[in-house]
Amino acid sequence: MLAQLWCLVSPGAVFLLLRDRVWLHQGRDVMVALRAVRLEQWVAVLLLAAHGWYLWGWWSCRRKEAGQEGQGG
Questions:
Q1: How far apart are CA 43 and CA 12, in angstroms?
Q2: Beta-carbon neighbour count of residue 2 at 10 Å?
Q3: CA 18 → CA 24, 45, 53, 58, 70, distances in Å?
Q4: What does the alpha-carbon distance between residue 71 and residue 63 come to, in Å, rounded to a whole number?
Q5: How confident is the model at residue 10, as a pLDDT?
Q6: What is the pLDDT along the chain (73 residues), one digit of tens a residue?
Q7: How far is CA 6 from CA 2, 25, 31, 43, in A?
Q8: What DSSP assignment string belongs to 9-42?
Q9: Which of 32, 39, 36, 33 lies closest to 47 in space, CA to CA?
């Protein structure tokens, strides 16, 4: 259920990442690009990573339950 509720805030996180793309146009210098990322963009990345983590947990739990039902018990 929590993974489904996170779908409500994920579009906002994607918007924050794509709204100000200065960090994409910093060239080949990775450190300069990382310094150009704003705090709310880091939070958006963490939020999307947490969403992926919750979805992975849900998916693996469902697979485990399906495997136990197939074994008869």
A1: 11
A2: 11
A3: 10, 11, 21, 27, 44
A4: 13
A5: 84
A6: 665 676 788 888 889 888 887 777 777 788 887 888 889 989 999 988 988 888 888 889 888 888 877 665 5
A7: 6, 30, 30, 14
A8: THHHHHHHHHH--GGGGSTT-HHHHHHHS-HHHH
A9: 39
